[in-house]
Design goal:
Order of helices and strands: EEEHHEH
Number of domains: 1
Structural class: alpha+beta
Oligomer: single chain
């Protein structure tokens, strides 16, 4: 399994995913947030292990977005698709009568 960072909007919608090599995949239309995230993630450096860094990102507070981790062997695109599906299923459960 590999730890990946899922980038989400404030309402929790997953929009992108990053792996330890700092490769990413984003939903169309979120290039601005992808570029912002890339600039932030590139500050990690080599002294901080990936598992420690993703934990820090998950604890980070922001008024723009938030992060969560997933442990998966899926490709970046499949990992994002899975997270979007999970989010939609949870959203539907919350609004169901």
């Amino acid at each position: 399994m590999a730890l990946m960072l899922v980038h989400a909007t404030l309402d929790g919608t997953p929009i992108g995913v990053w792996n330890e090599a700092l490769e990413s995949f984003y939903s169309p239309g979120f290039e601005g947030l992808q570029n912002r995230a890339k600039a932030m993630l590139q500050t990690k450096g080599t002294a901080v292990p990936w598992d420690v860094y993703v934990d820090r990102m998950e604890q980070r507070t922001s008024f723009v977005d938030w992060w969560k981790t997933v442990d998966t062997e899926a490709s970046l695109e499949d990992a994002l698709s899975s997270e979007i599906g999970r989010y939609r299923a949870l959203s539907e459960d919350e609004i169901a009568p």
